[in-house]
Design a protein that fits this description.
The chain is mainly β and 137 residues long. The protein has no helices and ten strands. A hairpin with a 2-residue loop joins strand 2 and strand 3. The termini are far apart.
């Protein structure tokens, strides 16, 4: 398996991908206020994976999970996608990036502190803390 890191793993207002470039707007959201729970996750998750030493001989799976403050599974659906050797790599021994934009993320079951965890092939690559709290309507 190639060495994988996530130089960018953030919650933001919006993000897009153009010609392999990740464009991020309003990054760094760490608190979500909602009148009631469970609530929709209306922010966007932006990810840039860096694949180094890219001797990819097999597919790899990228998964994002929302877990509770103490690491307990909150029963929240996760994002999961399988990637393989990118087509058209001119120099397969050079590092390359994979940008991802995830809109309409997991539902937030209740107020509290959460951790978004980014896994590649079941190995934690990055995490991001976020708090959800009830606010008056």
């Amino acid at each position: 398996m190639a060495l994988v890191s996530a130089p960018i793993f953030t919650v933001c207002d919006a993000a897009s991908i153009r010609e392999g470039l990740l464009n991020v707007l309003g990054s760094g959201i760490s608190r979500i206020g909602r009148a009631t729970f469970p609530a929709e996750f209306t922010s966007t998750i932006a990810v840039q994976l860096l694949i180094e030493d890219s001797d990819l001989t097999e597919d790899f799976t990228v998964r994002i999970e929302l877990v509770g403050e103490n690491g307990e599974d909150r029963g929240v659906p996760s994002y999961e996608e399988v990637f393989g050797q990118p087509i058209g790599l001119e120099a397969p021994d050079e590092p390359f990036t994979i940008p991802l934009v995830l809109s309409g993320g997991p539902h937030i079951p209740s107020s509290g502190r959460y951790k978004l965890v980014l896994f590649v092939n079941k190995h934690e690559v990055a995490h991001y803390f976020i708090s959800a709290r009830e606010i008056p309507a």
